[in-house]
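To assess whether ligand presence alters the predicted conformation, the chain was also submitted together with NDP. Input:
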Amino acid sequence: GNADIGLIGLGTMGQALALNIAEKGFDIAVFNRTTAVTQDFAAEAGDLAARITPTESLEDLIAALKTPRMILLMVPAGKVVDQQIEALLPLLSPDDLLIDAGNSDFHDTNRRNAELPVQFLGIGVSGGEEGARHGPSIMGGGSRANWNRAAPILTAIAADYQGQPCADWMGEAGAGHFVKTVHNGIEYADMQLIAEVYGVMRDGLGMDAAAIAQVFERWNDGALKSYLVEITAKVAAAEDSATGGPVLDVIADIAGQKGTGRWTAIEAQHLGAPIPVIDAAVTARNISALKDRRTDLQEIFGPGPQPIAGQPDMDLLEQALTCGKILCYDQGFGMIAAASRDFGWSLNSAAIARVWRAGCIIRSAMLDDMAGALEDQPGRPLMAAPFFVDWLTKTQDALRRVVSLAVLHGIAVPAHSAALAYFDAMRTERGTANMLQGQRDYFGRHGFVRLDDGSEDQHGPWAG
Ligand code: NDP
């Protein structure tokens, strides 16, 4: 055969990726479990059909490919990926390359990378259907050599940020899917921070959706310029055809989740990496789902939010959101550094920030500044990079004021509160864990380190 790459799984993402690959001038052979889907896809490919070879069996797919072969899997994560690989293996040679582009758990990618008798890459693909069709962000994991084999196609189809492709090798084995996991956690947190500021505007300041839309639209010209702030403005501005009022006012306040943010929170706990803003965002979605209980408790205690008196200050809110966002990213990159250490990956934070600048849901202007800051000071926390030291210094007072106002007026801002507590804890040399160590030694003789002479495994006078 002479197709450059094969693709299995013509679902939403697979079809979009296949068209993207064909459009960039590569010949692609495609296969789907349900043959009718393959036929419809090929029939509707228009101008791109010439570059697309539809196949109706795995044998035909294999025969259509150049050797050594390259096959991209875009099927649901989990068992299906294993089953699909099982079915393919008898048809493959050791130097054929399988690329799992689904949302796989990075532990599965680690396992497959170690066990499979063929070449393997696990790539995180972000940006939804639109991204897959016109330029996703791609986070690659596996051997560098295998990445280099696939890179001509993957960088060609990826989003472009000022001439640079948003596709890169993140590290060995499951590193690509791990980085995608952190991306997803940050996505939850970024969204929650925005939703909290919306809550302060709506419940504290009594602003209507149209006014709120205008504020977010304005913010999208400043430091907060990002896809999420942009769509927030659009969501807030949209009108409901049934009521003639804002769509926002008819959307139930119950958040769905596919569990990707939860993965991030769980992995961070395994790594001992603090990501409290992401934790708060996951918890906020869990709380949102408890609508009936919230309704009952409002009956008992009365509603939380009270109006905030005085002149609304949008700049203060903008600064608080900016501060919270920086602290959330500091946590995400901190988690990446912890994984680098624990898993022996050499994850490059600057390269990761660069890959996130376009194509993915968390794309933003600030990620370009983060890439620069992380590049200049490898191994240092984002918070300690001079550019962000300036920002945090300038905005932390606003975060403090907004959290205080919200707390005093019964408005829950868990992600902002978590960001502020993280900031204060992280810049405090002498914390309060001496008390924890005293307690632990008291009830469990766990021992402590003395501050004055550094001696270890010391016990208090309560011992014995
Ligand atoms: P879809 O449900 O649209 O498509 C799933 C595809 O997998 C179909 O082609 C389906 O074939 C095939 N498939 C399902 N079960 C099996 C099976 N048991 N054996 C063989 N083939 C099977 O999924 P998406 O395209 O949305 O998602 C694919 C992957 O991409 C997932 O891992 C997802 O998490 C990930 N992803 C999705 C994003 C999105 O925005 N949707 C964004 C980023 C990643 P058939 O036609 O026969 O049913």
